[in-house]
Design brief:
Length: 300
């Protein structure tokens, strides 16, 4: 079995091969030319292979030396690249968060700058593209924010529920105060109903609490993402039934109003999912504390 190759000998060989000179290699590595010659001779004797032709004061790689130099140079280049990358990232943690698209665009993105400002050492990578919830064990995701009915999670997963959300009808102010103003539930019959199909409370569910009113729930535009349904409501397409959690900006700016008030059915839709063995990581703990603090502060 061959003994371990001395790294100093490999460094000496790489420099001499790249510079085609023992003297220049010695100058680069701050040693004497004889030290370079000694290190290379040690390699040649260890493997029984001649690496350089010595021609007067010049050195020329042999065929074996050239093949070895190609591999060694590539390895040193990769080490150099990894070292430079480490220098760029060593001062920060990378936190990878996956979220449902609507929560990411409607709630998380408008607040993310506040988290980054208070935690400048954490770089957040936000992903909302997985068609199904990612596997926290294999897909490099630190935190997964999910919506909908809870399914059995893999062993080792910690699931933290968000506070309950309130679901109410909302619309653009010009609809609420227009030709057919909305003062009672019965007034909704004069308007199109927007169906946010992913919302846990449908118009059919909501109308069970208002049995005296008949609305045609078979009609109206339908969207499979809340952020699209919210945008349609802002544009005046009809009356939206969705979560107050997702429309805080639109309500604050007056682009949407809740003509029938802010009381409605409550659902527990979102969950915060992490691996139990990573729950104590500073970057995950910092984001968890910040997010739930924001939810409590902005509770509607």
């Amino acid at each position: 079995m061959l003994s371990r190759v001395p790294i100093k000998a490999v460094q000496a060989f790489e420099a001499a091969a790249r510079l085609s000179s023992f003297a220049l290699a010695a100058e680069e590595l701050f040693v004497t030319p004889s030290a370079i010659s000694h290190q290379i001779k040690q390699l040649e004797e260890q493997f029984g292979v001649k690496l350089f032709h010595r021609v007067h004061r010049a050195v020329i790689l042999t065929d074996a030396g050239r093949r070895y130099a190609e591999e060694v140079t590539g390895a040193f280049s990769r080490i150099d690249l990894a070292t430079r990358e480490l220098g760029r990232t060593a001062r920060s943690d990378i936190l990878t968060v996956h979220s449902t698209p609507s929560f990411a665009s409607q709630w998380l993105m408008p607040r993310l700058a506040r988290f980054s400002a208070s935690h400048p050492d954490i770089d957040v990578r936000l992903n909302a593209s997985y068609p199904v919830p990612p596997d926290l064990l294999t897909q490099g995701v630190d935190i997964d924010i999910r919506y909908g009915l809870r399914r059995l999670q893999p062993a080792g997963t910690m699931v933290l529920p968000f506070p309950p959300e309130t679901i109410v009808p909302m619309c653009a102010p010009e609809l609420a105060e227009g030709e057919h103003p909305i003062r009672t539930v019965a007034d909704l019959q004069h308007h199109s109903l927007i169906h946010s199909e992913i919302c846990l409370v449908s118009w059919r569910d909501w109308l069970r609490e208002h049995r005296k009113v008949q609305l045609d729930i078979s009609r109206g535009p339908r969207f499979d993402r809340s952020f699209m349904a919210i945008s349609a409501a802002v544009d005046g397409m009809g009356i939206l039934l969705d979560s107050l959690l997702l429309v805080q900006r639109e309500l604050a700016s007056g682009r949407l109003v809740a003509p029938l008030g802010f009381d409605g059915p409550k659902v527990q839709g979102y969950t915060f999912n992490i691996l139990k063995n990573q729950a104590g990581l500073p970057k995950i703990r910092a984001f968890q504390d910040w997010l739930f603090g924001e939810l409590d502060r902005n509770a509607t």
